[in-house]
Amino acid sequence: MEHVESLLKATLAEIERLLSTRTVVGEPIHLEGQTIIPLVAVGFGFCAGGGSGKNQKTASLEGLGGGSGAGGGVKPVAVIIASKDGVRLESVRRGAATVVEKVGQAVGHIIEKRGEKSA
After folding, report:
1. What is the C-alpha separation between 27 and 37, in angstroms, rounded?
2. pTM over 0.70
3. Fewer CB within 10 Å of terminal CB in the chain, N or C?
C-alpha cells in the first residue's frame, strides 16, 4: 500500500500547487488608470484507490495495483474594474468571449473619458 500512499501524496501535492488564489483571481491588467482583475470559478474532482492480494491456490503469487484520476474546469465569472471613479464588478454570463467583451468595454470607456477631457 506504500505505492498507493505515495501516488496519493504526489497527486494531492500537485492539486495544491494548481489550486491557489491566483487560479481564482487573475493577474491585474493595468490600463490608462484603470485596473481590471478577472475572477473565475474552479471546479475539481479527484479519486484514488489501490489494493493488493495473493493467489489463494498458490501463496507465492502476489499482486498490487493503484491509481488515481482527476478532472477539473475553469470558468470566467466576473471582472473587477477599479478606477479613480470607484470600483465595480461586471458579471460574465457566457464564458471567455464575454470576458474579452468586458475588457473591450472597459478600454472603450477609457477612450471615451479621454476624449471628453481633451474636448
Report:
1. 6
2. no
3. C
